[in-house]
Amino acid sequence: MLEEIFGQIDNFTPAIIAGFGLALGIQHAFEADHIAAVCTQLTNSNTVQSKKQLFKASLTKSSLLGAIWGAGHTTTLILVGLLVYGFTLTINKEIFSGFEFLVGLMLILLAITRISNKNILKIKHIHPHTHKDG
Q1: Sign, CA torsion 72/112/101/6
Q2: How far apart are CA 111 and CA 35, in angstroms?
Q3: Are 23 and 29 in contact (CB under 8 A)?
Q4: Residue pair 9/17 in contact by the 8 Å Cβ criterion
Q5: What DSSP letter does each residue of the chain carry, written as one string?
Q6: Distance (Å, rounded) from C-alpha 69 to C-alpha 122?
Q7: Which of 26, 59, 72, 127 is 20 to 30 A (C-alpha) from 83?
Q8: Pairwise CA distance, residues 115 & 58, whole Å
């Protein structure tokens, strides 16, 4: 289906192309890897809350995280798009598969850190005094 649409792209107005891109972006945002990554960042396994409390407490946090996540994706797409267009590059299947593999590794890392309740990427808090909890 997408091949048919891309084959006729010369007949579309810029507004239709932008709308199509937006629709594909929205569909992509709700794919399982994005939902898993965002949920992992929003939830805290040592906090016991009802779903309703969790939703209310994290609405602002999730909105901000979603905006930052979207801005990061948009920036990456624009930069990669400009590089591909500017240097007339082709991204072959092997490179694409490699990136997909890295996404899988990132999701596994997020799951491990959430299950173990550790943040291995967090900068350690170091200064010359001790805290009650260590």
Answers
A1: negative
A2: 12
A3: no
A4: yes
A5: -HHHHHHTGGGS-HHHHHHHHHHHHHHHHTSHHHHHHHHHHH--TT----HHHHHHHHHHHHHHHHHHHHHHHHHHHHHHHHHHHHTT----HHHHHHHHHHHHHHHHHHHHHHHTT--TTSPP---SS--TT-
A6: 18
A7: 26
A8: 19
Give the CB-side neighbour count of residue 64, counting CA atoms within 13 A. Answer: 7
Measured CA to CA, the distance from residue 47 to residue 122 in angstroms comes to: 19
At 55, the amino acid letter reads: F
Query: Would you state the structure tokens that stand for residue 114, as one six-digit string?
Result: 């959430």
Per-residue pLDDT band at 67 (split at 50, 70, 90): confident
Higher pLDDT, 47 or 51: 51
**36 burial via Cβ count (<10 Å: 0-12, 13-18, 19+):** middle
pTM, to two decimals: 0.55
